[in-house]
Amino acid sequence: MHIPENYLSPSTCGVFAVAMVPVWMRAVRHVREEVPRQKMPLVGVAAAFCFLAMMFNIPLPGGTTGHAVAGTLVAILFGPWAATLAISIALAIQAVMFGDGGILALPANCFNMAFVLPMCGYAVYGLVRGREERHTGARAGSGRPGLGRELVAAGVGSYVGINAAALCAAIEFGVQPLLFSDAAGRALYCPYPLWVSVPAMLVGHLTVWGAAEVVFTVGILAFVRRVAPGFGLGGLAGDGVQAAPVRAARPVLALVAALAVLTPLGLLATGDAWGEWSTADLSAQVGYTPAGMAHGWEWASLMPDYSLGALPSWLGYVLSAAIGVGALLVAFRLLGAGASSRVDFGPRHDG
């Protein structure tokens, strides 16, 4: 779902950049108001789940691949605006450092995966879980009565969220040949129209990759609720749950480390994701090179395709995962250093 460089016109990318700037500004404001300073690094840990989820490529018959995003998971743990900020930073790291997604296309990718996905997923999660249980149910923890319903709501929300994001990406691909073509009628950018891009993007997400998103979200949420109930904001962001010490995240950090070690499993999937072909591969498919791609801007990433020089691919993948996770943890620790502590007006227990 990472739109590469030059698949969207510069003007399309500009529209999404203008649209996302106020979204990012609002996300920063919400995070600083709603997430206690001592819990800000934990948002970075949650963002690491998104970064790692996107490294596990899953094949689909026919040669294409896809991945989970885990955006709804972050929204459930820290609120949808925190998810928007967390996933945006993860996507920026992927684009700049690893060439996964275009630099010019970054605002569009953030719109799809960092805004539409967590907002839709979290909204559906809230509807399925129910207002009464969200506000009056037992606190997150081992054996809490509402955990089963929360996991069902998380599964449904994550499935809807990732498919909403995929639909947006499909539309962005599909309108390019309708809006931008040369005098001969050839597309300047992505050459596939809506009646090709929409089914191509949705088939995999309605089936295999949507299921992967559900499994990833529900599995990690169940783990967190049972072994680290202090991780997150206890449900809805801003519900007044007292912040737990960062040491409560140790089991979650152990899970992040385990997933990072397992990321080379994503290398087993062969083929490219739909809409993420190289210019040469796309030219072979359609019989010509779209002019916007032939003369477009290219970014030379530091570690292209999560590789590190002459190192074995599996080792480069693991080290890339470690570097990406480390960058996210540092980013949110810095954000936490500049955030104000939230005053807790929760119940006091004297004596």
Automatic annotation (TrEMBL):
Keywords from the named record: Cell membrane, Membrane, Transmembrane, Transmembrane helix, Transport
Residue ranges of every copy of the PDGLE domain listed in the record: 253-336
InterPro entries given in the database record: CbiM/NikMN, PDGLE_dom
UniProt entry tagged with the keyword Signal: no
Location, primary (coarse class): membrane
Cell compartment(s), UniProt: Cell membrane
Keyword DNA damage annotated: no
Residues of the signal peptide: none
Cellular component annotations (GO), alphabetically ordered: plasma membrane
Record protein name field: Cobalt transporter CbiM
Provenance organism: Parafannyhessea umbonata
